[in-house]
Amino acid sequence: MTLTEAAVIALQDHAILWSVGEISASDVVNAACDALVAGLDTPSLRILAACTRAEANYDVRDLLPPALDELGLTFHPVASEAGQEAAARALTRRMLAGELRPWELTFRIHQRYGHELPLTERLAELDDEYAILEYGNRTVDQVNAEVTAEARRLAAHPRVPTEPTDTPS
């Protein structure tokens, strides 16, 4: 993966994580700065990256959608299934990067989506397993390994196009 591709993924992840309240607006501004450094450059991205920490809390809401749009990225509606799946994938990438522990990932997924989001059902089940470890025959390491495997699967899961693709007639 190139530096530019990584910056695109990071900016998209920061957008959805900010919209669901997982990270701060200044984290989004930092991701915009990283995207500029990685070679992405659009007028709206420059404006977003120029926000101060104080401005970020007020301005990211208006500046982020056009910055994403200029890059061909999507600002997912949080309540949509696509938005929920994008947030779940972003959280799994955070865990795989070492920013969350496996039990924190399952807890956040379970708390946010319960058993209702098909994409994350297995993570919700694994959160239940953490709760009953002392009564079963599995260890924390075994459940952690299964969470990590599931996180890898979700992070690699193909993204659903946000709009229908044109097909030849």
The total of beta strands comes to 0
- Strand content bin: under 5%
**In angstroms, what separates the terminal alpha carbons?**
34 Å
Principal-axes geometry comes out as: elongated
The total domain count is 2
What class do helices, strands and sheet pairing give? Answer: mainly alpha
In N-to-C order, the SSE pattern is: HHHHHHHH
Q: Unreliable stretches, pLDDT < 50, 5 or more residues?
A: 160-169
Count, helices: 8
Please state the CA-atom Rg, rounded to the nearest Å.
Answer: 18 Å
Mean pLDDT across all residues, rounded? 90
> What share of the residues lie within helices?
55-70%
Structure keywords:
2 domains; mainly alpha; 169 residues
What does this structure look like?
It is a single chain. The chain has 169 residues and is an all-alpha fold. The chain folds into two domains: 3-70, no CATH class; 81-156, no CATH class. 66% of the residues lie in helices and 0% in strands. It has helices at residues 3-19, 25-37, 43-49, 53-70, 81-96, 102-113, 121-131, 140-156. The longest helix has 18 residues, at 53-70. The radius of gyration is 18 Å and the shape is elongated. It starts with a helix and ends in a 13-residue tail after the last helix.
